[in-house]
Structure formats: C-alpha cells, structure tokens
Sequence to fold (66 residues):
Amino acid sequence: MRPSMLRALNRAAELTRQNRLTEAMLIAEPVILTADEYEGEEIRRWLLDHVTDFTGEHHEGPKELP
Fold:
C-alpha cells in the first residue's frame, strides 16, 4: 500500500476514535474509491487487521475477508 494511503487510513482511524466520523469518511473515501484491485485488497486486509484502531475496543475473534 502506498504510504499516502496508509497515512490517510491511520488519520481516519484517529478521527473515528474522536467521534469525528464525517471527517474520517472525507479522508478515507477517496483513498478507497481510487484504489486499484490490488490496493483494494490491501486496504480490506488492513481494515480487518486494524479494526480496533477505529473502535478503540479489543476483541479476539476470527477475521474474514467478505
């Protein structure tokens, strides 16, 4: 994943934890929409691996790609 994409996703996670979902979506949506097939797969994997970055909760359980 490009460093700029990763920075945007990390920033979106930070904003989400601050209850600033609209701003988070404004940052993350263009990254997701412009991703190619391979980047999209990396983003999905990153989101699954970093769900607690967005929620602030820590759950143990299986992670699956939709």
Summary: The radius of gyration is 12 Å. Residues 12 and 25 are 7 Å apart (CA to CA). Helices lie at 3-17, 21-34, 37-49, 51-55.
